[in-house]
Amino acid sequence: MTSTAAPLDVLLLPTWLVPVEPAGVVLKDHGLGIRDGRIAFIGPRAEALKLAASEVRELPGMLLSPGLINAHGHAAMSLFRGLADDLPLMTWLEKHIWPAEAKWVDEAFVRDGTDLAIAEQLKGGITCFSDMYFYPKVASDCVHNSGMRAQIAIPILDFPIPGASTPDEALRQGIELFGDLKHHPRIKVTFGPHAPYTVSDENLEKIRVIAEELDASIHMHVHETAFEVQQAVEQTGERPLARLGRLGLLGPRFQAVHMTQISEDDLALLVESNTSIIHCPESNLKLASGFCPVERLWQAGVNVAIGTDGAASNNDLDLLGETRTAAMLAKAVAGSATALDAHRALRMATLNGARAMGLESEIGSLEVGKAADIVAFDLSGLAQQPIYDPVSQLIYATGRDCVKHLWVAGKQLLDDRQLTRMDEQQLTATAIAWGQRISGHSE
């Protein structure tokens, strides 16, 4: 880079820089330059200091990594956080969550719940999230206004849902929103059939045709529990994943969420179709849904990303904590202490999420030319010392309260733990008011 180039908008000078691609690399005393929302320079500190920059930020004791990518969640459900805990999945859904949704979910609920989720995620180092919930247009407006990046999955079920009385209406709304946001720099619209047991073959066929025409992704809960698979086999003689394969839905644009049950045939289907899996370990643990065999998938070459699921079943949107749980759980499930090491766990929470969403050329790693979606973790605290491998310390010894700064497309949305565009006190007050309304009427 010559001195004649336009000055950088900002030059970041952390102690460590972890690009994620190439894999396993930690750059010490390097700088990263941002220009026009993109990464314009990565190189040794001495070289970086020769460049003209409008702003220079020294970040001592900090690790710079790609922003975390939360590949599955239901943002507005943050307002149901802790509403119905310690229950099995179908009881939780049918007796508590679905009735609460029928009673409370409207545009205001989705707006306030999504804003709450966005703020929590930004403070936790998440720069991009996947959302699958009702009133997707409202959620997309929240994302647009916040400066964050997101994939909005249009929920489709065989029965009426808040905001869409039929599956066809939901699809029409989805196609319209896809068209409206096609050129949005930070929002990608996908189709979200809820699960194999709530969407018929006929509607899945429609979704497949539309997704192919628009080159859109499909995001769906699949094989969440053993019960789901067993029930499908008893009723139809076919495992849900095999059914999706027969209907032509699987492929590089398909995101299979949960996948706690994987037979040899399932694995072959996943590998052959190049389907991505979104692993949500804490929600699966809490609902006793089962364990996704992450190491087996990884060794087979399947792309595995990570998601928090909704705060109603997790109960936080803490992707760093989720990644730590994923790394620990992978070892227990594989019976191997070398399964999902810290560097691969970080890759799962960044580049693999980008790949699942079809955004790997844009985000997920720190590379020149990519969007500047970046998080700075402060590793200078007592609980992180001494530091032998900063990535190990990040995954195994660091909580999300160490997230210090965060940028999306070069815009700083978190500065020294403070949200720059959102009013945290107001968000908290709004959430408390919703909680009082919901609990006051739940008798």
From TrEMBL:
Q: Does the keyword Zinc apply?
A: yes
Which UniProt key words apply to this protein?
Answer: Hydrolase, Metal-binding, Zinc
Q: At the top level of its lineage, which domain of life is listed?
A: Bacteria
Q: Name one GO molecular function term.
A: metal ion binding
State one Pfam family annotation: Amidohydro_1
Residues annotated as domain Amidohydrolase-related: 64-412
Coiled-coil-forming residues are none
Kindly give the NCBIfam families that the UniProt entry links to this protein: PRK09045.1
Family (UniProt)? Belongs to the metallo-dependent hydrolases superfamily. ATZ/TRZ family.
Please report the name of this protein according to its UniProt entry. Answer: N-ethylammeline chlorohydrolase
Specify the species.
Pseudomonas fluorescens
